[in-house]
Design a protein that fits this description.
It is a single chain. This protein has about 375 residues and is an all-alpha fold. Helices cover about 70% and strands about 0% of the residues. It is globular.
C-alpha cells in the first residue's frame, strides 16, 4: 500500500510562496523601490524549478506500479488533463475580461491570435511569446513533461524505459551543445528543465529503492533548505562558478529526497491548514499574479502605500494573494475537477483510485 507523503504534500506550498515572493519584490521595486531581500534582482527564486522536480517525483511515486499495464495510459493523461486545464482556462478567461475592462491591465499579447491559441492549449509559441497569463509558461513545460512521462506506460516496459532514458540523454546533449538544431522547437523539447523533471523521478526512485536512514533524510532536508538562500546569494554576488539552475536543482534534489525519506520512515502529522495550503498550491500559483497586479495598482492609486509603508503593504498583498488563491481552490478548482472528471470518465472505470485521491498529490 502506498504511504501518504505528508511532508511532500506540505512542501507543495513552497512553489507559489517562492514565486509570490519574487513577483512581490519585483512589483514593490517597480512602484516604490522596495526590493525584498534583493529578490527582484534574481532571474527566479527556484519555486518553478521545485514545481518541475516535484511533478516528476509524484508522477513516478503514484504511477510506477501501473507502467506497462493496459488502459493505464489514457487514465494517466485524463487525470493530468483535468488537474491542469479546467482551472487554467477559467483563470485565463478572467484575465481576458480584466484586460478588456481595465486597459492598463492588458499587455497587448491578448490581441495576438498566435499567442491566444498557444496560450489556450499551452503549447510553445514560435516567437517565444509567453502566455498572457505569465505564470503559465511553466505549464507548457509541465504538459510536455507528462506527455514524455507517458511513454513509460508502453508495453513491454523496457521500450518505454528506453525512450524515457533516451529523452534524458538527448536533453543532456542538447544542453551541452553537443547536439543542436537552430529551431525553436529543439530548444523547447530539449531544454534544461527536462532534467529537473527527470531529477524528480530519480529522487522518487531513490527513496523507494535505497535504504536511506531517517537521520540522513533530516540532513538532506537541511542541505536543501540552506541551498535556496545560498543559490540566491551566489546569483547576486557570485562566489561559486555554478549556475543558478545547477545550485537550485541540487538543493531541490536534496530537499525532495530528504522529505521523501522522512515520510517513508516516520509517522508525520501536520495541521489541517498546512495540508489544505498544499492542496491549494496550484490555484494560488495560477491566480496570485493577477491578484498582485490588480491590488498593487489600486493601492497605489488610492495612496495606501503612504499609510501602510513598504512592509505592511507587502504583508497585505501576500495575504490577498493567498486568500484569493485558496478561494479559487475551493470555489473553482475542486468543483471543476469533479465536473470534468464526471464528463471525461462517464461510463468508464475511475482513472484515479481511492488511494490516489487520498494521496498528497493534487495538482502536481
Amino acid at each position: 500500500m502506498r504511504r501518504k507523503l505528508v511532508l511532500i504534500q506540505m512542501s507543495r506550498a513552497l512553489v507559489p510562496l517562492l514565486v509570490m515572493l519574487h513577483h512581490l519584490s519585483t512589483t514593490m521595486m517597480d512602484y516604490y523601490g522596495y526590493n525584498i531581500w534583493n529578490l527582484a534582482f534574481l532571474p527566479l527564486t527556484g519555486g518553478v524549478y521545485y514545481f518541475f522536480s516535484l511533478s516528476g517525483f509524484m508522477a513516478y511515486y503514484i504511477y510506477r506500479e501501473k507502467f506497462g499495464r493496459k488502459g493505464q495510459l489514457s487514465d494517466f493523461l485524463t487525470n493530468r488533463f483535468i488537474r491542469i486545464y479546467p482551472l487554467y482556462w477559467v483563470v485565463t478567461l478572467a484575465f481576458l475580461l480584466l484586460a478588456f475592462l481595465f486597459p492598463w491591465f492588458a499587455t497587448g499579447a491578448e490581441r495576438d491570435l498566435a499567442v491566444i491559441l498557444t496560450s489556450i492549449f499551452l503549447v510553445p509559441n514560435p516567437e517565444w511569446q509567453d502566455p498572457f497569463l505569465i505564470v503559465a509558461w511553466s505549464l507548457e513545460y509541465t504538459v510536455y513533461f507528462y506527455l514524455m512521462f507517458s511513454v513509460l506506460f508502453m508495453s513491454p516496459r523496457f521500450i518505454g524505459q528506453a525512450l524515457f532514458a533516451g529523452w534524458g540523454i538527448l536533453s543532456l546533449l542538447g544542453i551541452a551543445g553537443i547536439v543542436y538544431i537552430d529551431f525553436f522547437l529543439f530548444d523547447f523539447l530539449f531544454a534544461s528543465y527536462n532534467l529537473m523533471f527527470i531529477a524528480g523521478v530519480f529522487c522518487a526512485w531513490l527513496i523507494l529503492h535505497a535504504p536511506i536512514p531517517a537521520t540522513l533524510g533530516y540532513l538532506c532536508i537541511a542541505v536543501g533548505l540552506i541551498g535556496f538562500p545560498v543559490t540566491w546569494m551566489n546569483a547576486l554576488d557570485p562566489f561559486m562558478e555554478l549556475s543558478f539552475e545547477i545550485t537550485a536543482s541540487v538543493s531541490i534534489m536534496f530537499l525532495l529526497t530528504g522529505l521523501g525519506v522522512i515520510d517513508l520512515n516516520k509517522e508525520i502529522s501536520i495541521p489541517k491548514e498546512f495540508h489544505q495550503l498544499g492542496n491549494a498550491a496550484f490555484a494560488i500559483y495560477l491566480v496570485h499574479n493577477v491578484v498582485l497586479d490588480l491590488f498593487s495598482e489600486w493601492m497605489d492609486q488610492v495612496g495606501l502605500h503612504e499609510l501602510l509603508g513598504n512592509f505592511a503593504m507587502s504583508l497585505l498583498l501576500v495575504a490577498l494573494m493567498l486568500f484569493f488563491g485558496i478561494l479559487a481552490h475551493f470555489k473553482l478548482e475542486l468543483p471543476l475537477h469533479r465536473r470534468f472528471k464526471g464528463w471525461l470518465q462517464k461510463n468508464k472505470a475511475p482513472a484515479v483510485t481511492a488511494n490516489d485521491t487520498d494521496a498528497v498529490t493534487k495538482n502536481t
